[in-house]
Design goal:
Two copies of one chain form a homodimer.
Chain A: H1 8-36, H2 39-46, H3 50-56, H4 60-74, H5 86-102, H6 104-117, H7 121-148, H8 158-175, H9 182-196
Chain lengths: 203, 203
């Protein structure tokens, strides 16, 4: 099939199969967990042959990774609002992150991918490059604009600052210590911003 | 054997076997990873019979968990110094945490346990109750003493504060984004403490 010239119809069919496979992987990981997820079950749920999946992906982890990536792209990708009010913008985004992490649609595949990536360095690298770093870069861009506007200290290390925003949420989510509430997101934003405020010495 | 009265000699032999098993599990998870770790291999390395392990532990995850717990206890357990200098005390402890997480002796079993606990709620609970929460409680106690001494704002939420200290280190470690340096640990401590400083309104 890959040798045939692609017609608009076959391209459309391929895209339809691809989406069905990605959706099936997401649904199934939520139902049975990553350990019991199989290529067979994904194929059956998507209504395609096993070989169709093997032609496009080397492993169930790579299917699930692409499912998660499609999910992130559907939600508009990582862009932070810039209304000029840094505190409001960060609270909006971290509250949305808290809600997303609590939503089984994101929670289960991301947890499975994170667990899997602990003993799969290639998956860890891909997860970092394609999912995580673009999100972190969006935070960094928003903080840079605030620093340029004099809202945060010119000496602030933006990379450390953004990790201080997302790290505590991630910690609570990954380790399931306490619920990921909006109040928690707000409190993290407020403390970090007080910590980054331009001091009298920098005016 | 469990029906026999325990003599000092048999108790000593049991303890020796237990330590050999815990040490073997730690060594092996570093060599082969959690996925390929087996009770058979632990027994062979420890020089005991498989049945000795099954008598004491229900699964390889629970052996590894006890290995990790013994390792933490050997290092003195979670106590934070209180020299009166909060910033110095926190930097000391977070630098040590960064070093520990970068040390394969801690890194590999803790990574395996964290990954495993993503789809094993009982293990997640045990990891939280016996390893994580005691560490977090030690941070909270140190912050409370600082709040009582007026070094941080009386309005500071100590639980959120401690998660802001450990969360960023954990995030960088778990996701392997950037190296866990002492400079990073210091920067996190400095920003959090500026964020928690008592404001003029609270004096």
């Amino acid at each position: 099939m890959s040798e045939q010239p692609r017609t608009p119809d076959s391209a459309r069919r391929s895209e339809r199969s691809r989406r069905a496979i990605l959706d099936a992987a997401l649904e199934l990981v939520g139902e049975v967990g990553f350990g019991k997820l199989t290529i067979e079950a994904i194929a059956a749920r998507a209504g395609v042959g096993k070989q169709t999946i093997y032609r496009w992906w080397p492993s169930k982890a790579s299917v699930l990774f692409d499912s998660f990536l499609a999910l992130s792209e559907d939600s508009g990708g990582p862009v932070l609002p810039d209304t000029g009010d840094l505190e409001a913008d960060l609270k909006l985004v971290l509250r949305a992150t808290a809600d997303e992490l609590a939503d089984p649609k994101y929670d289960l595949p991301l947890r499975a991918l994170t667990a899997e990536s602990q003993h799969d360095p290639a998956l860890a690298r891909e997860l970092n490059e394609k999912v995580l770093e673009p999100q972190l870069a969006a935070f960094e861009a928003r903080l840079r604009s605030a620093r340029d506007a004099g809202r945060i200290s010119p000496r602030a290390d933006l990379r450390v600052a953004l990790e201080m925003l997302v790290g505590p949420l991630y910690h609570r989510w990954m380790l399931r210590t306490l619920p990921l509430t909006h109040a928690y997101a707000d409190s993290v934003v407020e403390t970090v911003l007080r910590g980054l405020a331009p001091g009298p010495e920098s005016v």
